Amino acid sequence: MNDYAIVNSDAALGLAQRTCAQCKASKKKCDKILPKCSRCARLSVDCSYPDPERLNGSDHGNDTAGARFEEVFERLRRIEAHIFPPDPTAQNESSQQQPSLAHLAQSHGIENPNPINWALEPGTLKPAYQSLILWQSILATLDEHKASVNDVIRIYISTTDRWLPMVSSIKFQKELALYGELTSSDKFVLLVLAMHLLISSPAHHPPAASLAESPWYRRCKYHWSHFVAFREPNIELIQSGMLIAIFEFNHCVEDRALTTLGICCRLAFLLDFDEVMAKHSAQDLGKLSDEDEEIILTWMGLTRLERYFNMPPTIVPKAQCMPLHFDNDPLSGRASPYSGPSIARFSTLEPDELAHSIYEYDAAQRNGRVQKFIRDHRYAAVSPELYAKVMVVLKDLDDYVAVRRAQMERDGAWAGIHVALGAAIQIQCFYVAKNTCTLDEQTMRSMHSHIEQMSAIISRCRIFHGFEENYLDGIQPTWCSLPYHAISSYRLIEEADTEKTLPSIDMTLFVEVLQTMAPKYRLAARCLELLELPGVMSS
């Protein structure tokens, strides 16, 4: 076992009071790390101390979690000092051949370089060392935020997990117990770090020029990138990347969200998530295992996020990684409904929660169909054939919304309807823009109806949840995209309806949603800027 990998060690953590027998016999310096000093670990020899040692004078079993964390920090600092010992000879040789640090910093536009914090050389950064640095990062981040891992998971479950369920409560409980003993897996620690990044308000981040420069964001993204490059792929790595991508999308972090999500998609294919989904869609194999259930939920989440990230204000959607599911030619008829495992085969989620996710997944697939159509036909000339294709896709969306509205009257579940309505408006706006921004009466009335229905859905949600404090925290990104799209589309209708033949729609609700989220989500603030609307609600 690697003695540096503290997360996989059940042994006591601390420092011995005396030099070990091997270092003493060899007259070598001993760092006195328990249970095995660094020199003995490096030479793979037995390490023994003269007397049984205790941690700071007390039994290991009686230490509190807080004291153990302090010991971990101390051990990390000592081990880091031994990972890269200074070599005076090499330093003298390199100083004669290389420009000074100050000169390099000046040529790169860096002020006041501080090499004291540059403790790592990438070529020697082994996985075991990365484990140490990851643990140091999560402990330091939680300490800076004055939060605990239980706080992070509690808030995550009450926000993001409500609309993007992936990790089962059983897994949370198991890993939390291990975390308290400092034996959690690296992949879970990384997942918690990503959860913390996503749930943290921008106001709580350490001071930085922007969230792209936030130390919390950099820590999380650097660790995730390193694990992607040098560790075996696993589902937690995909889930961590998804949460980082949501953060990047919500806060407009230099258009990195789709790239981060694209890496997650490739990892999912590498782990055969698509095969698991296909197998359980084609055959009724009884109750899903916890592992397969988590894979299917994560796969559905990847699909939804890719569609959400391509919604307005994006004008031309990017090429898709996640597959679409249609019967033969996507323009030959109706889109295929959800064909995955039945709700009865799942066991880790409540039926209502699962139905919500399936409805949203189904709507996202139809949204993806619209996005692919727009991308494939962005250079096509206006023609009767193009109009006919638009109407085929639009009819399928309208039929889907009608079915879902009927279901909503029975079960009250509005999930998926607003996304499908947004997709209908998106394909209509695409054709209007193609047709030199000419809005015919039929299209104008259809768009007006879609916006009215979208307003009703948002009103319904606010009636059910608006009394809750911060009820928009952690909500899915569509709640930024759809209000923006509704407002911009309604402006087209107002310009075209010169004779005021259509009843007016109060757009205040859409504006208020964006203004409520703008202080916490850069995406909402950007939508308001594009619409040239104030960023705060008027009193």
Automatic annotation (TrEMBL):
It holds the Pfam family Zn_clus. Residues 85-105 are annotated as: Disordered. SUPFAM superfamilies: Zn2/Cys6 DNA-binding domain (SSF57701). Residues 89-100 have a biased composition (Polar residues). It comes from Bimuria novae-zelandiae CBS 107.79. GO terms for molecular function: DNA-binding transcription factor activity, RNA polymerase II-specific; zinc ion binding. It is found in: Nucleus. Keywords: Metal-binding, Nucleus, Transcription, Transcription regulation. This is Zn(2)-C6 fungal-type domain-containing protein. GO terms for cellular component: nucleus. Residues 19-49 form the Zn(2)-C6 fungal-type domain.
